[in-house]
């Protein structure tokens, strides 16, 4: 009997670990659980980190780093990250097209991410079905899908005032416009261009699960509301998170063995995602806040945004030193906290840390991957949003899902003071605090419900099966 050819799915992610990591995990799961053939395309620049760290050792999954593109002349002076990322993707499309054109088995499905909608033209050319993998939460997606419906503004003054305007996306909690798409930056127009192409998609895979965002999910599948939010079919398929990621072995062993020696639930993990940095003043306050809280901690530290490297750094020929926290920490901080704290420069094996029994709380910038990783490991959070969807995620976690402390982070660029940081940490970490107990209980419940969603027969598992079946049927008919 002739065996059917595996369905070939292409995934195009925009560069940035927050998108690459979940896209890779989606690819792995389509290969290992659903027997598809997957090619993941990653646009790069000469400055891109080597994604060989992304553990690709699976038959059926091909990870292709597209040739590096140079966008410096195209975005000179442009500060918007969204515009930069969009440009990198757009400049990589010629390479993507030629790889697809010459591939032995043309993919029948193309899954893009939010910043890759320009690739939909290639999908049209090669008659591939068009899907998007949204790496953020469902409310963010609903908001973006609704964006074209929001009345356009006339001038710059209007733009500024709209930052704080509440948008009532049907069926969802009101969202401040500026939280997701700052109309004062180039990102707004660029985002609008991406979201107006959502209507071309056959479906959107969301890295979340039904039980986590029930209200929004109901709105998105409600026929009446669908008239108002121009969105294709949605498929919550998450949490899709990575099991491990690229730290050097020594670093992993060191921090994990340090955790082995700490009591259960006693360590606060502090990290701001793949690119988040604080100001020097804020780093100082956080250091003192940690010290005042008298809790154990692991802190993944980056050079502060406004930090000027010491002159010795430039004088040192061939300097490979990337970061030395003692250059910017308060005097004596490392010595005073060495019995209780571990400072890791730049990067840590986050998932391993979060899954360790000694970790009791995650102080996080609330990137959606970090959020899902915390949820899947039953760890309550202290939200410290910095940019993009993170404020929205933080509100969701504190007010709706109730797995994160309610923080009093001042609006704008104000600094969070050490006393407030100490208060938040103690609230979650100390045994006796009722609010902390509730958060820990809720974190356990969510872990159970997240695990249920991705297990065989669970809502996310079924959603993905439904899609795969559709893709297989379509692919079979192409091959006939
Ligand atoms: O030291 C580190 C730091 C990060 N990570 C991993 O890197 C990923 C980071 O992703 P995320 O938590 O989502 O943060 P960002 O990198 O900031 O992600 C971008 O993309 C996300 C998904 O769209 C958005 O929610 C964020 O706001 C946006 O900044 C996670 O898997 C982490 O486990 C590590 O393994 N070690």
From TrEMBL:
The alphabetized UniProt keywords are: Glycosyltransferase, Transferase
An example of a GO molecular function for this protein is: UDP-glycosyltransferase activity
Gene3D superfamilies attached to this UniProt entry: Glycogen Phosphorylase B
The keyword Cell cycle appears for this protein: no
Key word Amino-acid biosynthesis present in the record? Answer: no
Give the domain of life.
Eukaryota
- What sort of enzyme, by top EC class, is this? transferase
Q: Name one Pfam family in it.
A: UDPGT
User: What Enzyme Commission number(s) appear in the record?
Assistant: 2.4.1.-
The entry's family comment says: Belongs to the UDP-glycosyltransferase family.
PANTHER family cross-referenced by the UniProt entry: GLYCOSYLTRANSFERASE-RELATED, UDP-GLYCOSYLTRANSFERASE 72E1
Name-wise, this protein is Glycosyltransferase
**UniProt organism field:** Papaver atlanticum
Upper lineage: Eukaryota, Viridiplantae, Streptophyta, Embryophyta, Tracheophyta
């Amino acid at each position: 009997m002739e065996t059917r050819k595996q369905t070939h799915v292409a995934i195009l992610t925009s560069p940035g670990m927050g998108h690459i990591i979940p896209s890779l995990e989606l690819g792995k799961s389509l290969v290992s659980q659903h027997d598809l053939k997957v090619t993941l395309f990653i646009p790069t620049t000469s400055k891109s980190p080597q994604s060989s760290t992304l553990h690709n050792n699976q038959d059926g999954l091909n990870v292709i780093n597209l040739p590096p593109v140079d966008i410096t002349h195209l975005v000179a002076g442009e500060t918007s990250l969204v515009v930069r990322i969009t440009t990198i993707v757009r400049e990589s499309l010629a390479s993507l097209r030629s790889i697809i054109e010459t591939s032995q088995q043309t993919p029948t499905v193309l899954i893009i991410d939010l910043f890759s909608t320009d690739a939909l033209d290639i999908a049209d050319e090669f008659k591939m079905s068009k899907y998007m993998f949204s790496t953020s939460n469902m409310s963010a997606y609903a908001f973006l899908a609704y964006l074209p419906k929001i009345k356009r503004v006339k001038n710059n003054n209007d733009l500024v005032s709209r930052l704080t305007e509440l948008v009532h996306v049907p069926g969802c909690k009101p969202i401040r416009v500026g939280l997701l798409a700052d109309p004062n930056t180039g990102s707004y127009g660029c985002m609008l261009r991406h979201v107006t192409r959502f209507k071309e998609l056959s479906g959107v895979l969301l890295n979340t699960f039904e039980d986590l965002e029930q209200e929004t999910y109901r709105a998105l599948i409600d026929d009446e509301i669908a008239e108002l939010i121009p969105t294709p079919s949605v498929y919550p398929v998450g949490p899709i998170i990575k099991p491990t990621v690229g730290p050097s072995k020594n670093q992993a062993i060191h921090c994990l063995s340090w955790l082995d020696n700490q009591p259960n639930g006693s360590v606060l993990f502090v990290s701001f995602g793949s690119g988040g940095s604080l100001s020097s003043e804020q780093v100082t306050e956080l250091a003192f806040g940690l010290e005042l809280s008298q809790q154990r901690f692991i802190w993944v530290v980056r050079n502060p945004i406004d930090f000027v490297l010491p002159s010795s750094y430039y004088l040192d020929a061939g300097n490979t030193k990337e970061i030395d926290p003692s250059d910017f920490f308060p005097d004596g901080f490392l010595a005073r906290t060495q019995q209780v704290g571990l400072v890791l420069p730049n990067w840590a094996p986050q998932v391993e840390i979060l899954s360790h029994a000694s970790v009791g709380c995650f102080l996080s910038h609330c990137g959606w991957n970090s959020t899902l990783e915390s949820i899947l490991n039953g760890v309550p959070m202290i939200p410290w949003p910095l940019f993009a969807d993170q404020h929205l995620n933080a509100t969701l976690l504190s007010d709706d899902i109730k797995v994160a402390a309610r923080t009093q982070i001042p609006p704008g660029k104000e600094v969070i003071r050490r006393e407030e940081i100490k208060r938040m940490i103690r609230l979650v970490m100390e045994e006796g605090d009722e609010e902390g107990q509730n958060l820990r209980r809720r974190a356990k419940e969510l872990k159970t419900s997240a695990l249920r969603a991705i297990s065989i027969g669970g809502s996310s598992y079924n959603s993905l099966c439904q899609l795969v079946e559709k893709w297989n049927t379509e692919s079979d008919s192409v091959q006939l």
